[in-house]
Amino acid sequence: MNIALISLHTAPDAQPGQGDAGGLNVYVRATAAELAARGHQVEIITADPARTSDAAAGHRDPAPEAPVTWAASTHLGPGVRIHRLHTPAGTKEDLLTHLDAIAAAMAGLPELADCQLLWAHYWISAAAVLRMRETHRAAATLAVSFHTIGAVKDRDTGSQREPADRLAVEPRIAAAADLVIANTPAERGDIIDLLGAPPARVITAVPGIDHTVYTPGDRHAARYRLGLGAEPVLLAVGRMQHIKGTDVAIAAMQQLRDQLPEARLYMLGAASGTDAQTAGAMAEAAAAEPAITVLPPEPAERLADWYRAADAVLVPSRSESFGFAAAEAAACGTPVIAAAVGGLCHIVTHETGVLLHSHDPQIWAQAIARLLGDDAARQQMAAAAAGRATRFTWAHCVDTVLAGLSGAGATA
């Protein structure tokens, strides 16, 4: 089967942890490789990543009359091609103003016309595929992975941060898709309850992780390779955002300053998000705290060493559809202290880590201090975490999706 994975707002070969790149990038790249390994031809459709740097340089609205054109296609791996669109969009939200042109460009791509399945990732990609269906009568099966849902993010943060366009179109997407793919049972419930998707068309396919990279290892050797000493090491991985609870981790370390002055938190990721003022304030607060070191995101092999070197990984997200950092840390045998939200409750249990039903920095500081002070508990959690993480595989994820497609009428 020829399959198209549409990820317009971020490319699967971008480095997670900065800009718009995160777990979605990992997901698209891994599922593409898994599908290709089974003999499927995979076409990935994305927008030119250069638009992100343009926006960062202050060019938010470049030449609205500029055409939407295709760059030369490249191979990501055997059986996987990437097709990049050049668009005038300055940000991912700006892509919405060019949906007609994007839909026309996709409808005119011969490789896409040969696909029996269009698997859209994130609401912007799904909106573009819907427009293509409406205007060009595309007949391929449409599967959608939301990855995050606007109404869920607003609910979980107790705010109204998500754009009105997103809140309006996501129920339409859920109603129109032949198959909606949720990351966890909790997300499936949200898709049905908040977006009104027909339950028979919503499946749960838990994402995987790369078990050839994320494995338990020698903690002391990992610390040696990273240039770390014997001090208590905490780790936070991912973009610095309000939704990720970056501010909670920073404030918790400030609370711990007197109690555990030797503890260090390493934050691997860049400030990100549409609220530049909030992201910038978090970056400044992190830089000002002596117990925190902010570093650029790392490629997977070196990131695995950071997980192994840490005494605990902090995931204080306010909303999370899955939680790749938590799953990767668990696979490396490191306990996770996580907020009890969304997909994190599927990854972390009280046997493998600590789940907190609060974002109060004082409560987080207390939990961190307790875990750092209990070597036996950390060792027990480490073993249990590594065992539980073995259930997260890309083979099982893709098996579930292909089975769901058969039920939706697609030929797998």
From TrEMBL:
The keyword Glycosyltransferase applies. SUPFAM superfamilies: UDP-Glycosyltransferase/glycogen phosphorylase. Residues 22-203 form the Glycosyltransferase subfamily 4-like N-terminal domain. Residues 230-386 form the Glycosyl transferase family domain. The keyword Coiled coil does not apply. Gene3D superfamilies: Glycogen Phosphorylase B. Keywords: Glycosyltransferase, Transferase. This is Glycosyltransferase. InterPro entries: Glyco_trans_1, Glyco_trans_4-like_N. Pfam families: Glyco_trans_4_4, Glycos_transf_1.
